[in-house]
Write a structure and sequence with these properties.
This protein is of the alpha/beta class. The protein is built from 14 helices and 13 strands. It is globular, with a radius of gyration of 20 Å. The structure holds 4'-deoxy-4'-aminopyridoxal-5'-phosphate and glutamine (GLN). The site of 4'-deoxy-4'-aminopyridoxal-5'-phosphate has 14 residues, from α5.
């Protein structure tokens, strides 16, 4: 026990989330424009916010049911059917969680034994390494190769061992903004079926796709029965602080996740669960406008970053654009990001935070574009002075 605490703490130190928080503090100290941590600077739909206020006023303030309120489980199931043709049973195949973070961590804790391996692509959202570490499992990564962020299927195959238990797939992908293609998803699905792996997918950016389209891994042949699909309300409704997420999948797997969730948070966000029902029921126009609005912001930021001299990888989805800083005479993203607020009043995050070997992403920096247009315009003007 005494050994485990320092081990975990040392494993988790310096992961992306720590750095996002450090960069947000730096932004506040310098009064800089914060394009680091990914959160919108405007609230989501007024009717969704009103529904949260109404839920508090209506007295939805005590512990909700363990699996989540039935109205939200039904709304999540209806959303999966409406957008992705998936048909989870709201009573047994949907669980509400404290954001996607808890769903992902609880899934890894529920399904991995000590020494099991979790396969994922790198760069990788930082909570995956944290979740694997908490479970005593090993995160094994397959590189997405910059600048196109494709992968070599033979690398994926070579990373599977007899201890591989889970494959964790994030599409659309943070930090690269990659949206996995149908062919890539087919290769991933085929591997999972052949090696009898459970897949856990992180689809929090499912509605933030600008080029191509989002395809849930669970919709591929042979995958529904072995996939836990995770998403959350944070990005879709621009209320990242509400922390309402969900996991859908086969009843036995969802039940295992629920057992763990009971001892992580037990339940969460009673009034916000009601509000998210209102969000999930918004019409298709809302979802279309969300993506088209963000696509314009992506272009605004990416054009500005290119003009400032960076090599820009234009993302197909998410909140984030990655740049290569070397044309500006820099090659250490962490140093670059620490000095950027002082140099020009803008905050970004070093992509090294998303690599198990920080050297791999050393020259890359991630900027968020989920900000008001005038903020982005001002940010690119400042970056142009570099
Ligand atoms: N997965 C990815 C890829 C993310 O970028 C984030 C952060 N927003 C999360 C999960 C966490 O989502 P939530 O806030 O719903 O826990
Ligand atoms: N997911 C958000 C990002 O990548 C931040 C969430 C966090 O700080 N953990 O910026």
């Amino acid at each position: 026990m005494t050994e485990r605490v320092p081990y975990l703490a040392s494993r988790l130190q310096g992961l992306g989330t720590t750095i996002f928080a450090e960069m947000s503090a730096l932004a506040a100290r310098h009064g800089a424009i914060n394009l680091g941590q990914g959160f919108p600077d405007t609230d989501g739909p007024a009717e969704v916010a009103d529904a949260a206020v109404a839920a508090i006023r209506a007295g939805h303030n005590q512990y909700p049911p363990g699996p989540g309120i039935p109205e939200l489980r039904r709304a999540v199931a209806a959303h999966q059917a409406r957008f992705w043709g998936l048909t989870p049973d709201p009573d047994t195949e949907v669980l509400v969680t404290a954001g996607a973070t808890e769903a992902l961590t609880a899934a890894v804790l529920a399904l991995c034994e000590t020494g099991d391996e979790v396969l994922t692509f790198e760069p990788t959202y930082d909570s995956y390494l944290a979740a694997a570490s908490m479970a005593g499992a090993v995160l094994r990564v397959v590189p997405l190769r910059a600048p196109t962020y494709d992968f070599d299927p033979s690398d994926l195959e070579a990373a599977v061992t007899p201890r591989t238990r889970l494959l964790l797939l994030n599409t659309p992908h943070n930090p690269t903004g990659k949206v996995f293609s149908p062919a890539e998803l087919a290769a991933v699905a085929e591997l999972c079926v052949r090696h009898d792996l459970v897949a856990v997918t992180d689809e929090v950016y499912e509605h933030l796709v600008f080029d191509g389209r989002h395809i849930p891994l669970a919709s591929l042949p042979g995958m529904a029965e072995r996939t836990l699909t995770v998403s959350s309300a944070g990005k879709t409704f621009s209320f990242t602080g509400w922390k309402v997420g969900w996991v859908c999948g086969p009843a036995a797997l969802v039940s295992a996740v629920r057992t763990v969730k009971q001892f992580l948070t037990y339940v969460n966000a009673a009034p916000f669960q009601h509000a998210v029902v209102t969000g999930l029921e918004l019409d298709d126009d809302f979802y279309r406008q969300l993506a088209s609005g963000l696509a314009a912001k992506r272009d605004l930021l990416c054009d500005g970053l290119a003009k400032a001299g960076f090599i820009v990888h234009r993302p197909a989805g998410t909140y984030f654009a990655t740049v290569d800083i070397r044309p500006l005479g820099a090659d250490d993203g962490a140093d670059f990001c620490r000095t950027l607020p002082g140099r020009c009043g803008v905050v970004a995050v070093p992509s090294s935070a998303f690599y198990t070997d920080p050297a791999a992403g050393r020259h890359l920096v991630r900027f968020a574009f989920c900000k008001q247009d005038d903020v982005l315009v001002e940010a690119v003007e400042r970056l142009a002075t570099l």
